[in-house]
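Q: Trace token order:
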Amino acid sequence: MINESNKVPFHVAIIPDGNRRWARERGLKPWEGHEAGAKNLEILVDIALGKGVGSLSFWGSSVDNLIKRPLAEKRALLDIYKRYFERLLTDKKIYDNEVRVNVIGRWEDQFPESLKEIICEVIEKTKHYKKRMLNFMLAYSGTDDMLRAIQKINDGYAEKTKITAGMLKENLMTAELAPVDFMIRTGGEPHNSNGFLMWDTADAQLYFFEGNFPEFKDVEFEKALEEYARRSRRFGK
């Protein structure tokens, strides 16, 4: 979906790779890279709101990120999430722009109660908004999402039911999200990871930024959106 008047993608998804490399290059701790990334995300959200992006999806972590990384880094990452969502609770821009905040993934299985309570409060306070969406993928894997959807269909429908694209979509964690128009990956590695939004990015335009995520600031985001506007989408025609 696209606003034809100004060529702004409706749904933008970001894979923010490179926080730890950014920190390592500066002799910093890994979580200091995540901290820089979180601050940068606030800048990008402002740009998206100003440009008229209808839905912005951000991949915060996979399950592996939370399970396999060192305990100190995991604790620091959870603390960053806590402070970020606390700021969202009182962020005037969220309410002025009627932004619905969604958190998608297995975060309820992975996060401490104190963090879950804050996230649930943000979700509850914004659930009635319909103008914009801000979506956080936390403890999320696209491969896991697809497998869970298939299992739900297997368990919930009569034998030999014909499976349709609509049926699959409505059983995904991302059931309420529009297809992704523009997927951006930072970090200089031109590939997807863990099947991120694999169903929803089937027809997405892709954009790869050579620098690390903390370097993907307002100017770079605007350049990416300008690049999208120059492209022609044919959808097989």
DSSP finds ten helices and eight strands in the chain. The radius of gyration is 18 Å. The CA atoms of residues 142 and 195 lie 4 Å apart. Confidence is low (pLDDT under 50) at residues 1-5.
